[in-house]
Amino acid sequence: xxxxxxxxxxxxxxxxxxxxxxxxxxxxxxxxxxxxxxxxxxxxxxxxxxxxxxxxxxxxxxxxxxxxxxx
Length: 71
Hints:
Layout: H1 2-29, H2 35-60
Helix pairs in contact: 1-2
Transmembrane segments: 7-25, 45-66
Organism: Rhodanobacter glycinis
Keywords: Membrane, Transmembrane, Transmembrane helix
């Protein structure tokens, strides 16, 4: 289960980065209409919140272990 959760986290992170790139593309190409840019950024924020929740839940269930950097 640990491997599946880590793969899911990486996929979610890549989707968040893709939405950020998509928003940049829409911002550069759509000069008159900002709706697609705003929608892509809104999706990125929502997916980032889901990603953070997945990390917290994975840590609480013991699927993800902290490595203690900085301690």
